[in-house]
Write a structure and sequence with these properties.
seven-stranded mixed sheet, mainly beta, 53% strand
């Protein structure tokens, strides 16, 4: 079992920045990947960014150049730095970990970007 706890969401004006954190209950070194997803009202959950155990990353097109995912294995934590936020980034953001066998989700953190 892995518990994931997100933090760092909130209300920000367009153009602002937020940093989300996802703390895992155990070591993430061996995890195949960790990622951030988001779900806006009335929409399906979508992958925002992911980082693999080797450090490679991928982003959905709409956040490329604005968001950065990173991991601190010593702290069992994954971060999502979000810059130049837009109203369309408003959503509940979820942390996900995939061990290679099982997927785990956090409870989500709300990000609201006002215009």
């Amino acid at each position: 079992q892995v518990q994931l706890v997100e933090s760092g969401g909130g209300l920000v004006q367009a153009g602002g920045s937020l940093r989300l954190s996802c703390a895992a209950s155990r070591s993430i070194i061996s995890f195949f990947s960790m990622g951030w997803y988001r779900q806006a009202p009335g929409k399906q959950r979508e992958l925002v960014a992911a980082i693999r155990s080797g450090g490679s990353t991928n982003y959905t097109d709409s956040v490329k150049g604005r968001f950065t995912i990173s991991r601190d294995n010593a702290k069992n934590t994954v971060y999502l730095q979000m810059n130049s936020l837009k109203p369309e980034d408003t959503a509940v953001y979820y942390c996900n970990s995939f061990t290679g066998f099982q997927s785990y989700w956090g409870q989500g953190t709300q990000v609201t970007v006002s215009s």
